[in-house]
Amino acid sequence: MEQELLQRAASVDWSRAQFALTALYHFLFVPLTLGLSFILAIMESIYVKTKNEEWKKITQFWLGIFAVNFAIGVATGIIMEFEFGTNWANYSWFVGDIFGAPLAIEGIMAFFLEATFFAVMFFGWNKVSPRFHLLSTWLVAIGSNLSAFWILVANGWMQYPIGTTFNLESARNEMTNFFEVALSPVAISKFLHTISSGYVISALLVVGISAWFLLKGRDVIVAKKSLIVGASFGLITSIFLFISGDESAYQVTQKQPMKLAAMEGIYEGEHRAGLVAFGILNPNKQIGDDQNTFLFNITIPYALSILGNRSPNSFVPGINDLVYGNAEKNIMSIEEKIQKGHLALEAFREYKKGRESGIAADDLEQYSQIVKENMSYFGYGYLKDAKEAVPPIALTFYTFHLMVALGSWFFVLFIAVLYLAMANEITKFRKILWIALWTIPLGYIAAECGWIVAEVGRQPWAIQDLMPVGVAATHLSSINVQISFFIFLVLFTALLIAEIGIILRQIKKGFAH
After folding, report:
1. Which of 83, 119, 336, 347 is the most exposed place for a label (fewest CB within 10 A)?
2. Rounded Cα–Cα distance for residues 378 and 472 (Å)
3. What is the rounded CA–CA span in Å between residue 142 and residue 152?
4. Please, is 388 exposed, middle or buried when counting C-beta atoms within 10 Å of its C-beta (0-12, 13-18, 19+)?
């Protein structure tokens, strides 16, 4: 029995690793699709308006980079969707009726839209009118972002499951209110923050590659024009990134307080909580002990209470409050939630047995009522210990703060680049150009950190409070998952290397080709 449990745990861990690998690689391609599609549309709009052939060359240059990224992003995304069926069958059974709906809409409404007009955008320069071609470019941009919306609706529901009910007879969750699911505040905030991060990454790429041309003294005029569009787009979307990040932090505080506590390294809740601007966690700190949380930290007073509750005097719970409970603040302990989860699970099992054996309807209704009353704690019934409900604190904390720091740096960089470019002084500041070039990978690092915060920060849940990751996984042999993990690792790495190689060749050719 012990050996079987160990094998099961290994299978779950490898399934998690495989999905994380696929998601992280996939999100190397998605941001560029989201943002560069709109930058292309802006550049082509300038071309159609001015009829200046330089803008056509600029648009076609960036279109070549967009095209290869788009194709590889689709490939990795399809693999990730298949993994829900292969590695996460229990999850798919439990919530497939809900989770599948936005993904189906994404395929029918958004993916078909962007795929159809992508062909016109890429191949139709001399086959359709300039205005129809421009329309196609805008529709690809809109379609790409609509795809992101429906995918993030699905992910947002996992973080904050609403608009559904649990069917005891089928043991599946069923959607009861489509608009609650589609317009969930968590889903909307995730969508806005995710697409704005994609816009910033795309702007960094355009600015960085344009800076390379200026450093080499090649295609200087068109490179300056590209740089100005990229920096302008980046500055505007950086501001939007801060606004959407503020809303995202608010939603996390309200809906996933344990994630917020891990993001900020808060063990003891407090009124007028400060925001950690910089900190080094104490590696020896444990839940429930009295050691200092930080070896060193710089905190902005009141900022976390304002960010999380829109009130400088408000209370922000810490990890200990959430694990052990806080009666004064009406916070239930994890142990109490585990007990309620056990009630729901046991009543569900008795309901199933009763239906099979034909017990009285009144008894079935009694079990059904117990499940309904405790359904919001259903997933806690699978936990063995209260501390299992705490995500990896150090990983969540450091990735969150790195993401915020990099986002702030991008904002400053866009201001500097745009100011110097508009003053026609940018070529004199070669260090700024080199910095812009080497900032490109930092955009991707910031985006990956964001996804780590979003997904690692909600552990152990596949669906917040309803299903732990260990329960969601398919019962597979760990060796089978390991084999597919390394196959995907090689495949995705090869695709990434191929994309970088193609982009570098495109850059070497320059704007004239």
Report:
1. 119
2. 13
3. 15
4. middle
Residue 290 token pair: 């009295």
Percent helix, strand, coil in the chain, to 5, is 75, 5, 20
DSSP 8-state code for residue 274: P
Q: 58: which residues sit within 8 A by CB, 6+ positions away? A: 43, 47, 222, 225, 226, 511
Q: What is the dihedral of CA 450, 433, 30, 75, to 10 degrees?
A: -130
Q: Is the dihedral of CA 280, 284, 290, 291 positive or negative?
A: negative
In sequence order, the β-bridge partners of residue 271 are: 315
Spatial separation of the C-alpha atoms in residues 121 and 240, rounded to whole Å: 28
Phi first, then psi: give them for residue 326, nearest 5 degrees.
Answer: -145, 100
Asked if 35 and 447 count as a contact pair (C-beta separation under 8 A), the reply is no
C-alpha–C-alpha distance, residues 35 and 199, integer Å: 4
Written as tens digits, the pLDDT of the chain (513 aa) is: 556 666 777 788 888 888 888 888 888 888 888 999 999 999 999 999 998 889 999 999 999 888 888 878 877 777 877 787 788 888 888 888 888 888 888 878 777 788 788 888 888 888 888 899 999 999 999 988 988 899 899 899 999 999 888 888 888 888 899 999 999 999 999 999 999 999 999 999 999 999 999 999 888 888 899 999 999 999 999 999 999 999 999 999 999 999 999 999 999 989 998 898 899 998 888 888 888 889 988 899 999 999 888 989 999 999 999 999 888 889 999 999 999 999 989 988 888 887 777 776 777 788 888 888 888 999 999 999 989 999 999 999 999 999 999 999 999 999 999 999 988 888 888 999 999 999 999 999 999 999 999 999 999 999 999 999 988 888 878 788 888 889 988 988 998 898 888 888 888 888 765
DSSP secondary structure, 30-45, as one string: HHHHHHHHHHHHHHHH
Q: Do residues 76 and 29 make contact, with C-beta atoms less than 8 angstroms apart?
A: yes
What's the CA gap between 485 and 474, in Å, rounded? 15
CA angle 348, 391, 335 (to 5 degrees): 45
- Per the omega criterion (within 30 degrees of 0), is the bond before 301 cis? no
- 26, 76 Cβ separation under 8 angstroms: yes
Integer distance in angstroms from the first to the last C-alpha of the chain? Answer: 65
How far, in Å, CA of 153 to CA of 109, rounded?
14
Q: Please state, as a whole number, how many other Cβ atoms lie within 10 Å of the Cβ of residue 302.
A: 17
Q: What are phi and psi of 174, to 5 degrees?
A: -125, 145
